[in-house]
């Protein structure tokens, strides 16, 4: 057995909580190819974990861990890194990692959870967030544009998702829940409340995708980049590959129909519909437009990333983040970070180059 990070004769562990789910499977399999660490796919269903382990020919080990109950000691014993692929609103695992000196990565898109994670003070380890598509790649694009300016005034982020892709249940539930929500944004240094699927804006994603109309949506990146990329204002909008579906949702919001999604019965029906009704493709695209001053001129940066199967690119960004922490070269020894604070856009794009296309454009305004 190879010697792990601790220098003993036993390999240290990497635990992927939700490791046999849609995104977790990809993460577990990729990390399982590294013989230095034993990778465990953990979750509350031991049978599924064992079946997945067999499917990997034993490269990934099974572990039973229900984060809503007493956390098993095996989850933390001799563990170098835990990746959280499910929402843990009570932060039980993250808090334990912070106290025990275990590196932690959370792929959550829930900004409320992120805000709570930012308050943790890990004593001997690092905690990393924004390791997916949005937030994640979108943050990197904004930071890439902003750091090439003397002053970044505004960031407009656009996310296009394909309705033909098979998304995990948790991702569908989160999206449906956000459709009926209002959220607060900072606009002209004042807080303003906006509703999802309002305030439409056209965005050119370049290439075959072309121009799409997106609508306000409470992705975490628009809140994060104001802190990590020093952008004065930021807004994120969502659109789908089906223009008809996007327009229909915006119309339903205008006539206040989407508010019924707050009713549990209606919400559950909507989740089932999004899960079962597949129309469109599995394409996705994200774009960041950053406006600011460079060399005494107002300029605009446009960065676009496109690809297929959003769940796979989310997983591979998380894999990159895991390898980054495990290698630890040039990184701080402790603290809570978003990916763009530890990694550059070019390095991440290189790591996922087989999955994505990147295009950028600079314009003097």
What's the quick description here?
By secondary structure, the chain is an alpha/beta fold. The chain has twelve helices and 16 strands. The chain has a seven-stranded parallel β-sheet with strand order 3-2-1-4-5-6-15, sandwiched between helices.
Low-confidence stretches: 1-9
Which descriptor suits the 3D outline?
globular
- According to DSSP, the number of beta strands is 16
- DSSP helix fraction: 25-40%
**Discrete helix count:** 12
Tell me the strand percentage band: 25-35%
Mean pLDDT: 92
The main sheet comes to:
7 strands, parallel
Class by helix and strand content? alpha/beta
The helix-strand sequence is: EHEHEEHEHEHEHEEEEHEHHEEHEHHE
What does this structure look like?
- The termini are far apart.
- This protein is globular.
- Strand 13 and strand 14 form a beta hairpin.
- With 365 residues, it is of the alpha/beta class.
- 33% of the residues lie in helices and 30% in strands.
- Helix 1 crosses helix 10, helix 5 runs parallel beside helix 7 and helix 6 packs across helix 9.
């Amino acid at each position: 057995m190879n010697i792990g990070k601790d220098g003993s004769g036993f390999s240290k562990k990497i635990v992927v909580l939700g490791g046999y789910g849609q995104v977790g499977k990809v993460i577990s399999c990729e990390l399982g190819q590294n013989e230095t660490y034993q990778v465990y796919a953990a979750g509350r269903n031991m049978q599924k974990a064992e079946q997945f382990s067999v499917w990997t020919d034993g490269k990934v080990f099974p572990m039973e861990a229900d984060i809503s109950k007493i956390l098993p000691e095996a989850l933390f014993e001799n563990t170098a890194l835990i990746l959280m692929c499910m929402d843990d609103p009570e932060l039980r695992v993250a808090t334990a990692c912070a106290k025990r000196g275990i590196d932690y990565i959370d792929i959550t898109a829930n900004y409320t959870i992120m805000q709570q994670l930012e308050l943790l003070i890990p004593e001997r380890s690092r905690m990393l967030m924004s390791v997916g598509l949005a937030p994640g790649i979108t943050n990197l694009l904004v930071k890439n544009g902003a750091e090439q300016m003397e002053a970044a005034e505004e960031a407009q982020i656009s996310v296009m998702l394909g309705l033909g892709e098979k998304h995990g249940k948790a991702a569908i539930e989160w999206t449906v829940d956000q459709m009926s929500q209002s959220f607060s944004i900072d606009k002209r240094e004042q807080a303003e409340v906006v509703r999802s699927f309002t305030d439409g804006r056209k965005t050119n994603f370049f290439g075959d995708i072309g121009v799409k109309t997106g609508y306000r949506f409470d992705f975490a990146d628009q809140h994060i980049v104001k802190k990590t990329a020093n952008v004065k204002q930021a807004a994120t909008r969502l659109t789908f590959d089906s223009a008809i579906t996007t327009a229909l949702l915006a119309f339903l919001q205008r006539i206040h129909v989407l508010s019924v999604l707050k009713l549990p019965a209606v919400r559950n029906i909507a989740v089932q519909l999004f899960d079962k009704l597949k129309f469109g493709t599995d394409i996705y695209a994200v774009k960041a437009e950053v406006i600011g001053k460079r060399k005494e001129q107002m300029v605009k940066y446009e960065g676009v990333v496109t690809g297929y199967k959003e769940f796979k690119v989310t997983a591979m960004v998380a894999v990159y983040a895991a390898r980054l922490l495990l290698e630890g070269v040039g990184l701080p020894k402790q603290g809570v970070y978003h990916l763009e604070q530890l990694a550059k856009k070019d390095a991440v794009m290189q790591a996922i180059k087989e999955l994505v296309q990147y295009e950028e454009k600079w314009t003097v305004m």
